Amino acid sequence: MKLGQRLLVFYFLILGVVSWFVLDLVFGQAKPLVRQSAEETLVDAANLLAEIVAEDAESGEIVITSSLRQALNRYAGRTPDADIWGLKKDRIHTHIYITGPTGTVLFDSRGKDEGEDFSRWNDVHLTLQGRYGARTTRTDPEDPSTSVMYVAAPIRHSGSLIGVISLGKPGRAIEPFVQRAERHLLLYGGAALFGCLLLGGLLAWWLSRRVNRLRGYAEAVANDERPAPPAFRGNDEIRALADAVTAMRRRLEERARLEDNVSLLTHEMKSPLAAIRGAGEILQDEIRDPSLIRFTDNVIHESQRLSDLLDRLLAMARLEKLESLPDRKRRVSISPLVEEWQRSRYSLLAEKQLDVSVAGSDLHAEADTLKLALFNLLDNALRFASARTTLGVQVEGNALSVTNIGPAIPDYALARVTERFYSLPAPGHDKSSGLGLAMVNEIATLHGGSLTLVNTDNGVRATLTIPQH
């Protein structure tokens, strides 16, 4: 799935969940809010009618006069023909009944319950006790839509409670307002949701378009094309990423050019150096003058040094081109590698009368690069070792250590000895290429490990650590 699609789906899921919770909450509150509003209106009307009824009271008793009865009946039969925010109201739905102090119905606007005992109903029962009385009752217990909300108000005369007047509003009269509120909520909520989805889609398209431009630029660079860097407006993370990719491209191009030039130079120089060395060896066999022999020896020696330097440069270039090691790590025995190195450096070891000791068995690593690292560590130890001492090679866990007895590394150089072309003078030796420890450090990095050099009491210990995955 593409990035823009993932963003849109993720945005849609979040928006959908939030919208569901919000709409569920609002719909859950729509009906109660409308009922609360209707109840508040009924409370006002009930108290107004209670005062009107109290005006006709005599001797502390409610009197339902003919004029009051007629007025209330006329009220129940009115046709309001009202347009309430688009809803037509063409009849009075309010049910009115008046009870005496014992809860007996004295007046019923429907003319059905006069003389009945309503003292058990909460609206009448609670009001007679001096509390707020209200109830909701279904005319058909099996049909929720037949519920009627009743609100009562006390009728007082000279401060005494002489009866109760109750007003009832059927749920069916309130339902159209609830339904309209829910329709409006659905309409406006749906419009808001659609607008948010549209904005989310535009945002996902905008981000995907910018990312695709950056991806196209990176793919063109990977295909050795030379595209112009993408120009992005604004100062956001994608523009910063584009600038970083452009900077990386330029650095990599500079590095590739340098590596190509080094490789070309080393390959082109190897043949002339071989010819110079061959010529020097031929001259050495023919010349008998001691002063000329010294010059031919120097030609052979320096051409060999240059050849070794070129070999190291090529090896370093190959290592730096690797992004990771090939997946062929195995257990590598160290002793045979040390013996092979001793045979190749026999004359140098004999000249200094050096011994080599090996402790430990094997190490889990890539064999070719481990061999190159070990040989360079041993060459470096040999170069600085004092005569008639021992070079120590030790494998312990996932670490390979090479120790020599000789001069310590100065403090100022400890952090730099693994840099390319940085070398320290060794007594009795020519200046080195400064690539040996740099190659070991590169090999350690490719293995995901590290190279550390520390001074010991009488020499230096170099430790190559390779994590065992």
Task: Give a quick set of tags describing it.
5-stranded antiparallel sheet, 10 helices, Heat Shock Protein 90, 469 residues, Helix Hairpins, 54% helix
What would your notes on this structure say?
- The protein is rod-shaped, with a radius of gyration of 50 Å.
- It has 3 domains: 27-181, 2-Layer Sandwich (Beta-Lactamase), CATH 3.30.450; 237-321, Helix Hairpins (Orthogonal Bundle), CATH 1.10.287; 330-465, Heat Shock Protein 90, CATH 3.30.565.10.
- With 469 residues, the chain is of the alpha+beta class.
- The longest helix is centred in the first third of the chain and has 53 residues, at 3-55.
- The chain contains 10 helices and 14 strands.
- Helix content is 54%, strand content 17%.
- It starts with a helix and ends with a strand.
- A hairpin with a 5-residue loop joins strand 3 (95-99) and strand 4.
- It has a 5-stranded antiparallel β-sheet.
CATH superfamily of the largest domain: PAS domain
Q: Tell me how many strands there are.
A: 14
Number of helices: 10
Order of neighbouring strands in the sheet with most strands: 4-3-7-6-5
Q: How much is the average pLDDT?
A: 81
Silhouette: rod-shaped
Q: Separation of termini?
A: 32 Å
Domain module count: 3
Low-confidence stretches: none
Series of secondary-structure elements, N-terminal to C-terminal: HHEEEEHEEEHHHEHHEEHEEHEE
- CATH fold-level name of the largest domain: Beta-Lactamase
